[in-house]
Design brief:
Blueprint: H1 2-16, H2 26-31, E1 35-47, E2 52-64, E3 70-75, E4 89-94, E5 105-107, H3 114-127
Antiparallel strand pairs: 1-2, 1-4, 2-3, 4-5
Amino acid sequence: MKYLITLLLLLVAPLATACKCIEFNVGEYLSNAEKVYLGRIISSQMLGSKGHMSATLKVAEKYRGAVFDLEEVVQRNSSCSLYFTLNEEYLVFEGRNGEVNQCSMRNTQHFRDLENQLKALRAIAKLGI
């Protein structure tokens, strides 16, 4: 019985510490972002031994901030860490110092209602908000 309880705790513990992203809302993510853009990962690398990673993205569309044609983002090792997948497209809400996590950098393949979200971002970009 003792082993069964230990096994159950080991299986449930990762769920308790998993990252919780808020329901996607353009306004909420825009309010916390220095830069917003759509880009494709062209390279990624580990930064040291603590699990931090960086990725370079080729930017396809710019929505907010001083976005360059190539952007580098950094993610620190946490419950909200994400895996950078080469050649895949991401919608990025980049924080200070280029920091992102799985909530602020979303793979467009797994994005519900992507076209409507992009339309909203384009409209906001035109207004300069």
